[in-house]
From TrEMBL:
Residues annotated for substrate binding in this entry: S61, L62, F122, L123, A124, I125, Q126, H214
Active site residues according to the UniProt entry: S61 (nucleophile), D186, H214
Subcellular location: Cytoplasm
Pfam families: Abhydrolase_1
Name listed for the protein in its UniProt record: Pimeloyl-[acyl-carrier protein] methyl ester esterase
Keyword Transmembrane helix: no
Gene3D superfamilies: alpha/beta hydrolase
Catalyses which reaction(s): 6-carboxyhexanoyl-[ACP] methyl ester + H2O = 6-carboxyhexanoyl-[ACP] + methanol + H(+)
Domain AB hydrolase-1: from-to ranges: 2-221
Family affiliation: Belongs to the AB hydrolase superfamily. Carboxylesterase BioH family.
Length: 234
């Protein structure tokens, strides 16, 4: 994805904040400019110069992992952290609820064979539960595909981050106000994981969107904005 995915909530949020909508390096209009391999640290290295001296920070899915890394390493600049449909560790294991490793592998294979069709299917799933899901998906598709397709090498290595990254033990070190948004119908960050993440970050606040899957800002944009404004001060 690229930053156009946020357009369903950008107009409303723009009334309250000066927004910086970032294409992750290697996605959309952002090129991968680091000499380092793709990692949470190299994403942060490239993103930070584009941000103002102080800011509220919000990241979705993989972007939530990157946003968490920023909050951990640049707490002097971050005023608050909000992660959306994200997890400190995405992959299921004996002691953790998450994505089955085979699903990530299948997703990578589908992206290789037909990237655009896979993204369209993904968007359709995320808008399920919304009263105007079809129109929302049409709108977001038009926005997403106006920007360049992601760098395939960066995309593959980003999926590898989802398979390997683990920030669970670092969550207690987050020093800024920490909000977590989830979709009840999300299959990538299952609802059963929420309590486990809350136990790792007991000072954080969790909000569950009952009609949403992996993208509550698409399926419930009005409530999404309302909940964010309750938690994040201007």
């Amino acid at each position: 994805m690229n930053s156009s995915i946020w357009q369903p909530v950008v107009p409303a949020l723009s009334e309250h904040f000066q927004l910086y909508c970032i294409d992750l390096p290697g996605f959309g209009d952002s090129v991968w400019s680091s000499e380092n391999d793709v990692s949470l640290e190299s994403f942060v290295e490239q993103i930070m110069p584009a941000l103002p001296p102080r800011f509220h920070l919000m990241g979705w899915s993989l972007g939530g992992l990157i946003a968490t890394q920023i909050a951990l390493t640049h707490s002097d600049r971050v005023m608050s952290l909000t992660t959306v449909a994200s997890s400190p560790h995405f992959v299921e294991s004996n002691d953790w609820v998450g994505i089955k490793p085979t699903i990530l592998e299948q997703f990578q294979q589908q992206l290789d064979s037909n990237f655009k069709k896979t993204i369209e299917r993904f968007l359709a799933i995320q808008a399920m539960g919304s009263e105007d899901a079809r129109e929302q998906v049409k709108q977001v598709k038009q926005l997403i595909f106006t920007k360049p397709m992601p760098d395939q090498g960066v995309l593959k290595q980003s999926l590898a981050i989802l398979q390997t990254a683990d920030l669970r033990q670092q969550l207690p070190n987050i020093e800024v106000p920490f909000n977590r948004f989830y979709g009840r119908l999300d299959s990538l960050v299952p609802e059963r994981a929420i309590d486990d993440i809350s136990a790792l970050a007991p000072e954080s606040k969790a909000v569950v969107f009952t009609k949403s899957a992996h993208a509550p800002f698409i399926s419930e944009p009005e409530r999404f904005v309302s909940e964010l404004l309750k938690l994040v001060e201007n």
